[in-house]
Write a structure and sequence with these properties.
Elements lengths: L1 H4 L3 H15 L4 H18 L15 H24 L8 E6 L5 H13 L3 E6 L5 E6 L5 H19 L6
Antiparallel strand pairs: 1-3, 2-3
Helix pairs in contact: 2-3, 5-6
Length: 166
């Protein structure tokens, strides 16, 4: 009964806490409204949520996240240097990156990481989920961008999500 009422308890708790912080009040009425939202929203958004795969290696996620944060920091400085320099020297390009991941969550993380890293943007994912179209701000050699995405982001995701390799 409780599992049916709270299909995603962590998200419900996060929604309640977020609501209370947003309204900046801990009044009883806000607790009630927050609890109602925390119960209703997960049911409405349930079909859109990607379930965590069984057997994924959560401890390997932390080093990956730290690496991504470092890459985002470094890429911010690189993009700033590029955009403050000669704009004519930029070589923007679209590059098709073949991906081997088959887990929906792993693919979502890969697309998010590519998009969050300054200088690259995941523009499209093919219908068969085997090719990611990436726009790069300064691409001297397309294969270098492909290799970087596959080695720095896809390979660790294949280790984190065991069913994510073909």
């Amino acid at each position: 009964m409780i599992a049916r009422l709270l299909p995603h308890p962590a998200q419900s708790l996060l929604l309640l806490a977020t609501w209370l912080l947003l309204v900046n009040s801990f009044a009883f009425a806000h607790w009630l409204l927050g609890a109602l939202l925390a119960l209703v929203i997960p049911h409405l958004l349930g079909p859109l949520l990607v379930e965590h795969p069984r057997g994924w290696r959560a401890l390997r996620l932390l080093p990956f996240l730290l690496m991504v944060l470092g890459d985002i920091l470094v890429a911010n400085f690189q993009v700033a240097r590029l955009t403050l320099g000669r704009m004519g020297a930029l070589r923007p390009a679209f590059v098709e990156v073949p991906i081997e991941l088959d887990d929906e969550l792993a693919i979502s993380i890969l697309v998010s990481v590519v998009t969050m890293t300054p200088g690259t943007l995941a523009a499209d994912l093919s219908q068969d989920r085997r090719t990611l179209l990436v726009h790069g701000l300064n691409v001297s050699e397309p294969q270098d961008l492909i290799d970087e995405i596959k080695q720095r982001y896809e390979a660790p995701l294949k280790e984190i999500f065991p069913c994510s390799a073909t």
